[in-house]
Specification:
alpha+beta; four-stranded antiparallel beta sheet; N-terminal domain of MutM-like DNA repair proteins; five-stranded mixed beta sheet; Helicase, Ruva Protein, domain 3; 19% strand; binds zinc ion; 2 domains; 7 helices
Amino acid sequence: MPELPEVETMVRGLRPAMTGNVVKRLQIFDAHLLQGCTAQGIEHRGRGARVVSVGRRGKWVVITLDDDRGIIVIQPRMTGAFWLVPPERPDHVRLEFEMDGSGDRVWFCDTRRLGKISLYDSLADAEGAFARSHGPDATEIGRDDLAARLKTTTRAIKPVLMDQKVLAGIGNIYADESLFQARIHPEVQAHRLNIGEVTRLHNAIHRVLAEAIAAEGSSFDAGYRTVLGLEGGFLNQNAMYGRGNLPCPECGTSIVKTRIAGLLGRPTHFCPNCQPRRRLSVKT
Ligand SMILES: [Zn+2]
């Protein structure tokens, strides 16, 4: 499932083809993905519009058109991906932009058709819709804001990190890696973290996401590819996800692969030595 680093990689890949160029034609091939708009409506708004910017909010791709033509938001969700080279599965193309000038074609493919495509009249409308269903973007949240949000819940820290209403963009792989780097057990109740632990976690989230974006995300199955059809490299360099029973890179203890409540069966990886359940009480 594309998480923040994968969607950021998509956005960076799309910019050279789209930003500043005019949409010669926009075609919707699958109206099932449309939310609150019609294929005719979105095709009409797109045709002849210049793309002012391609940005990201959480896991949303936000394409801003000029001349008040509106904002196209595409959510890749489970299996959505953009292609600048002819896609592996042309039968899974749900939307196509044909760009003037560059002559590029941009395809949005979605195997399971769980992605969403919507049209907003203004950036403020799109931002408002995002804010109603999401917390701050995980690359932008401040430490004190994170601390305040964690204080309000007794749930385990890992599912809280993956709750898009708390902060937007973090999924399973990056939650495991951030908690390992912060030396925090995934089942510690969020409200019990002290400010030192929250500071470590905040730093770890920013570092892990930056490293993952630099590696162009994570490909662990056939689901995610860059716009050029390449695999992301983060799972060649991470410490936890996918490494159950292998030695912890920090201390050599076997990494535990387990399942914890609230994660719909998705696995959790942690080092029981580096991430003890109980904080050692240090008297000074
Ligand atoms: Zn360890």
